[in-house]
Amino acid sequence: MGLPEAWSFMCRFNSFKRTNIILQHLRRSMHMDAAGEVLLERRGCAGVITLNRPKFLNALNLNMIRHIYPQLKNWEQDPETFLIIIKGAGGKAFCSGGDIRGSCQKPYVALIHGITMGGGVGVSVHGQFRVATEKSLFAMPETAIGLFPDVGGGYFLPRLQGKLGYFLALTGFRLKGRDVYAAGIATHFVDSEKLGMLEEDLIALKSPSKENIADVLEAYHTKSKIDQDKSFILEEHMDKINSCFSANTVEQIIENLQQDGSSFALEQLKVINKMSPTSLKITLRQLMEGSSKTLQEVLIMEYRLSQACMGGHDFHEGVRAVLIDKDQSPKWKPANLKEVTEEDLNSYFKSLASNDLKL
Prior knowledge:
Distance between the termini: 7 Å
Strand content: 5-15%
Largest sheet: 6 strands, mixed
Number of strands: 10
Radius of gyration: 20 Å
Low-confidence stretches: 2-17, 25-32
Oligomer: single chain
Number of helices: 17
Structural class: alpha/beta
Strand order of the largest sheet: 1-2-3-5-7-10
């Protein structure tokens, strides 16, 4: 799938309803001038995209994408543009939300400094180069709001080490700093104070190849000192994660955690029991099916899921409980896993026939 098709898909992907609902509920304006919300520059050998909504954690909206898409298309055709750099303004967040995903034929460097969730994952994790810093915070918290990891999560999560991706998707566990690199979500780790220098060195490259770009990133990665000797936060728990989350049903995962009985397992059990039962079952099947699908096939599957979720109960209830009223007490329907039948689950994954996503 090439750049034009992918970005065209973004612009017509109806799960932008998700972003609009959330942003409306948070009283965020969707009428700001998109030209100020995203900065597009040609600097040296690079096209630089800066997500410029720091007050809103650089959350994406449709107007921003409509500005980004044609410029990306131009840069892809421009023989003088050798790489794309995407970053967030303000230092606190790379991108915390929205829902877009892209496929770029040129080397693509995402500086995932700060909060990286939702759309921030979608515009970074599928790229060739992902640079984390000590201030990076990564999470896929969708099951807590009645949704699923809908930014190509069905493709990249099951491809992480062992069953780590399944664990992250079902629990919404947050990874910080160097752990984002250790998990395989970032390809490189750079001390945040060096990010500006890294960007300048990338921009200054003359007609760089992918290997030239990789060499610069590797040089900065090698020199990074922050938490250099720190072990992966989940390292001591990986055997439990691989064992407990290898089950084919959410019910069996829960049983595995109960039987394990360790404080770590019981903590995850407590978290999972708060999530939408429907979302948990959708997410597990999404990752299991996605593990053997191409990215293109996963996007078609996730489009189907998004349409079903938008018409369902739990997403709207999750947004209410977590983002609007903030009572953190969603009333899920169905209220337990047993009531989410195989027939219910199948309905989320069924073909939309002529309305299926065309890529």
